[in-house]
Write a structure and sequence with these properties.
Blueprint (H helix, E strand, L loop, with lengths): L12 H18 L9 H14 L6 H14 L1
Length: 74
């Protein structure tokens, strides 16, 4: 997904309906601000951050909030 409107041509109506339903589900799950809004470099940074945090059982949001809090104190 490029983040821009895309047109897809499928062989059958059934394939088109399945594709449309999967896109509706993706939109429900992730909204309009899904991973496609991240550049490839940001996606790579996020993946690396998640990998580094995984053994510590802490979320990326928790780390970011803590960092912002510390920055405000200085």
């Amino acid at each position: 997904m490029s983040g821009k409107r895309e047109r897809h041509f499928l062989e059958t109506k059934a394939e088109a309906e399945i594709y449309a339903e999967s896109q509706r589900i993706r939109l429900e799950n992730f909204g309009t601000r899904g991973a496609s809004t991240l550049s490839p470099a940001q996606q790579e940074q996020a993946a690396n951050a998640f990998a580094l945090l995984q053994p510590h059982k802490v979320s990326l949001n928790e780390v970011v909030r803590d960092w912002i809090s510390r920055e405000k104190e200085t």
